[in-house]
């Protein structure tokens, strides 16, 4: 019955597409904001940090309504009141609305990771002739990979469970949260229960995969370190 529900399958596809787009944009924007905030100081740092964090404190309903009004007004001003495309309500506006506050969550994760970054490595690389792009690709981003992965996961699941912003910006498109809300008002059905079970199993599967991959990486790193120590001992001998 779940697989035969065409509307639910469309809503599920839309949810995944929106979540993937939100994860990509939120990681890019959140990482850029974290690097910028970490590189400045004083009142400018406080102002930028406060501006990003304020979006988390704003209720989702307000973000959804303001996103819809701002982009539709902007589209009408550019293309005319009768043809506001591409700023009419739709899944693309849902992505923009969700990114406006989810990017701040990614920023916090990246900022926390940047606290353990040794700025001396960056300065040494620049002194040795590396460009800023090379420092970013080969030194800074590898250090930020754990935070980027965690930020992408947080953004993805935050988007999947979002309702308030999506409700006001989706236009006529369905997402899982909107679809489930419309069904729950008339009572819980076996289809909703089956969907909830699948989502729980999917989440647990991802968590298990991440933990197994983390342990495998830890074993490989420990093996490489042990091999390096044996090679050093052999050279000294």
SSE-based structural type: mainly alpha
Low-confidence stretches: none
Amount of helix = over 70%
The tally of strands reads: 0
Number of helices: 9
Order of helices and strands: HHHHHHHHH
Average pLDDT reading? 84
Radius of gyration: 23 Å
Please describe what this structure looks like:
The protein has 237 residues and is mainly α. It is built from nine helices and no strands. Helix 1 packs antiparallel against helix 6 and helix 2 crosses helix 4. The model has no long low-confidence stretch (mean pLDDT 84).
Lay out the secondary structure:
Blueprint: H1 6-39, H2 43-57, H3 60-79, H4 91-114, H5 119-127, H6 132-161, H7 164-169, H8 176-184, H9 190-236
Helix pairs in contact: 1-2, 1-4, 1-6, 1-8, 2-4, 3-4, 4-6, 5-6
Characteristics of this structure?
237 residues, flat
């Amino acid at each position: 019955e779940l697989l035969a529900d065409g509307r639910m399958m469309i809503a599920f596809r839309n949810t995944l597409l929106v979540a993937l787009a939100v994860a990509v944009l939120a990681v890019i924007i959140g990482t850029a904001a974290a690097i910028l905030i970490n590189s400045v100081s004083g009142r400018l740092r406080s102002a930028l940090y406060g501006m990003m964090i304020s979006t988390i404190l704003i209720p989702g309903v307000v973000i959804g309504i303001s996103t819809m009004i701002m982009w539709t007004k902007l589209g009408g001003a550019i293309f005319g009141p009768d043809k506001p495309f591409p700023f009419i309500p739709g899944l693309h506006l849902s992505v923009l609305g969700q990114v406006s506050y989810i990017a701040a969550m990614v920023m916090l994760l990246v900022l926390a990771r940047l606290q353990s970054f040794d700025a001396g490595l960056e300065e040494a690389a620049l002194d040795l002739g590396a460009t800023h792009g090379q420092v970013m690709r080969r030194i800074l981003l590898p250090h930020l990979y754990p935070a980027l992965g965690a930020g992408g996961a947080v953004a993805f699941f935050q988007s999947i469970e979002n309702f308030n912003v999506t409700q006001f910006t989706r236009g006529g498109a369905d997402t899982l949260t909107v679809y489930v809300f419309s069904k729950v008002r008339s009572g819980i059905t076996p289809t909703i229960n089956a969907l909830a079970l699948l989502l729980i199993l999917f989440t647990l599967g991802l968590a298990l995969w991440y933990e197994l991959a983390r342990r495998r990486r830890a074993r490989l790193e420990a093996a490489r370190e042990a091999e390096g120590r044996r090679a050093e001992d052999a050279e000294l001998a």
